[in-house]
Write a structure and sequence with these properties.
2 domains, about 45% helix, 3 helices, alpha+beta
């Protein structure tokens, strides 16, 4: 990135919050170079091949936490401990089923009440 200074450069021997793989197949070590630009760009470079394997910017970081984090419960403390992730997903699913059921019952009762009112005319 011509004309942009480097604010941080570190070799990662373990995955971080943005460069990771649940199966562990993403290559390590990797060089993370963070630039001092307005987007806070970070490039993850494979030192063996000399290629950029991942690019993170402010918006991709936001997408990582708001979409992948909340949609898939893809948080580092959860994907590292799989039984905990399973328990949380099951509990949230049961909560969704309970919410659906408690909403359907009053709705069904209202439909029956209106059907009786229309039939009684």
């Amino acid at each position: 990135m011509p004309g942009v200074g480097i604010s941080d450069m570190v070799t990662l021997d373990e995955y971080d919050s943005y460069y990771y793989d649940r199966t562990g197949s993403a290559g390590l070590p990797v060089l993370r170079v963070t630039y001092a630009d307005s987007r806070e760009t970070a490039l993850y470079i494979d030192p063996r091949q000399g290629v950029i394997v991942r690019k993170e910017e402010r918006l991709t970081r936001l997408n990582r936490w708001l979409y992948h984090g909340l949609h898939s419960l893809d948080f580092p403390f959860l994907y590292a401990s799989r039984p905990l992730w399973d328990i949380i997903v099951i509990l949230l699913s049961l909560g969704g089923i309970a919410l659906t059921a408690t909403t359907l019952w009053p709705g069904w009762q209202r439909l029956v009440r209106h059907a009786r009112r229309i039939a009684g005319r």
